[in-house]
Amino acid sequence: GTDAAITDLDTDDAQPWYAMHLRRSACETAVASASHGDFLIRRSRASPQDDTLDTTIASVRQQRQKVVLVLVANNHGTAMSFPITLAREASTASEVFVFGGTAFPSLRSLVRFLRIHPITGVDGQPFVLGSPAPYDDTPDMSVMSSLDRTSTSMIGTPRPAHPPWFVGVSSRGHVESLVAQAGHGDYLVRKSRSDPNYVLCVNDHGQLVNFRIYQRDGQTYEFGGKLFDSIDTLLAYVRSTELVGADGHSALRLHTAAGQTTSGTPPVPRPRPPATVSSEV
After folding, report:
1. Mean pLDDT over residues 267-277, rounded?
2. By the 8 A CB rule, do 96 and 60 touch?
3. What is the pTM of this model?
């Protein structure tokens, strides 16, 4: 029971809204610069010595007596902070995240709840959570644990604060330029600037194909007529099937996130300019 629960909670680390290395000021700035309802969740550091603690969900659980998480949400341009604490559920003895008196088994379940159940803004009006606020995910070395710093020096790059395939709110042109330089089947997912949906951009032998991912009810994602509880599970499904290629006929399979290769070396840019196939604006 306990080990399974810890494994489930650890998957929260990969969510684009969990800003594990972000300080309070940087987090509030990022959220305030985003759209109404957009949000991030960060570690609370009540005292200077807390900055040396690891920032993974597993370590947050171990430090539950003095560590809380903070939900930072944009309320019409103002960054509002809401505490998230840890508690042990009496009936099951399992640890849960507590927000507004309600217990949740994971941060993902808490976020899904707040996307359909409003919280009160600074103006007294209710609002629901929107999308993860974009932010610079380069970790501040002073807030990383000694283990994190050692790992960083060994591999040369910090652990990402969001999945490698997610680029946040970014322009279509920028994302397409990244995918165009990658290999066949490589892809990225971006948050649309014009609506609450997402776009999957895939390289098809140098041509770019864009697929819409629709966000439904603030907690599910629709792709090809099917519903998924997260974009991660959506991509897992898409990797196991085939998409329609740029020519409208050939089968296209996802390979890996653009810029991420199995050999660890950067992708070689394609020599010819890409064509773009999409009705997405």
Report:
1. 40
2. no
3. 0.48
